[in-house]
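Hi P.,

Sorry for the delay on this. The queue was packed all week, but I finally got your sequence through. Input first:
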Amino acid sequence: MKRCLFLLILFSTITASAQKKLRDSLYKDLNKAKTDTEKYAAYTALCTYYYISNPDSAIISGQRAFVLAKKNNWEGNQAKTYGNIANAYGEMGDYVKAMQYYFKSVKILERLKDVRALASAYNNIGATYIQSQEYKKAGPYLRSAERQLNIAIRVQGNTPKNVKLHCMILENIGENFLNLHQVDSANYYLKLVYPASLKKELNDLAGPIERDLGELEEAKGNRPGALDYFKKAIGHAIAIQDIENQSVAYLSMAHLYHKYKQQDSAEYYAKKALTVAASAKLEQDVLNAGKALYGFYDEDHDLAEAYKYFKLTTAAKDSLYSQDKIKQLLSLDFEEKQRQRDLAEAELSYREKVRTWLLIAGLAVLLLIVFIFWRSGRQRQKANRLLQQQNEEIESTLSKLQQAQSQLIQSAKMASLGELTAGIAHEIQNPLNFVNNFSEVNDEMIDELKEELKAGRVEDALQQDLAKYTRSIPCKSQSNNYQQHDLNAEVDFHSCLTRTLIPPKR
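Then the structure:
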């Protein structure tokens, strides 16, 4: 089982000879720090340094770092500090406190939507449930951690931090399957992640994975393979001062020797596991080693030693699993589930509200479109009516113009007819006037002729009447002007009469 710290550099990879120098350097950095940012970084580094070797000091440093983060309203750093403090409480075996701080961290990270940090927090919660032997509760959190990390990888890519966290999650999933006796699934995940853990930048993961692989080989009945992996795990743990994994690996070797009836070796490694766990105040590991020793000595009928470790086990168990703590842990688990349920309900409610508002917005848009179409239709109808009215007016005007044109044409025709009639009347009037004048002259000549006949002057009367007659007959010339003919001129009476009665053609 491996937890993830919120620091870019994991100090567990530093050799034991450099640990003291590193601690002194961290305290020098803290003393030199002037700004809140520098102080926060120094306290966080100390919290990480003491995480395994001295959880009490890690908690104190983490609390001081949190005060600075709270003062400056650094929400992301508050969440990270909660996680570091929770890790330290988990190493001490105070799972109630650990869960309290983990859930506080998750609450902030969910609000910030920091998917990678959420993946780390879920992995730590799952690891803590493994450590407290609540394996069924660990599974959902580890799967959530993997889902969140996959989202982060899609966005950020396979950065070194993401690769390392992914290996931690896979190792915890494999270990959880091993504890649930699902050997095939455990074998798949552990063999998947082990090659990557042998790289230099990930060698702090090698020890826990080798210990799990040892237990896997033990479950398969491969004693040499199991011992080989346990020895490798112990070597890695000692090299990087991973106290917890060292204790667990020793205890795993003790159980292996006990399984094959090597009681002395079993008791030896169980005591080493107990000593290492007690030096770091790892209550859960103290309890596990004490239970093993109590059982071993009970089988040997060494009542004094068995009673000694029974008392030690009882004290550790009371510290870890007192009724109050069990109730608190159950309450925390219930509260977290209730919080998750409330979040799910709130999200569902939010989605319903969004869906309702989207529906209302859709209806509003639809009504707006209907209104636009209705108004457009009204305007089109109005335009059509106006256009129809204009067309009717144009047609009426055209009809009037056509009537006026017809009247003008008719008037022009009538005027032409009048002119023609006037011309005809004028042409007719001239011969009529001539006839009338000629008739009057004839009447006068007849009267004069009668008088002359009565007087016996017939020849003189004829000559006078003829001369008078010829003078009274007008003749129409080519220019349409009438002239009097000379009395002595020859008169073509027939021709003159013809021109008078029948006008020439124009």
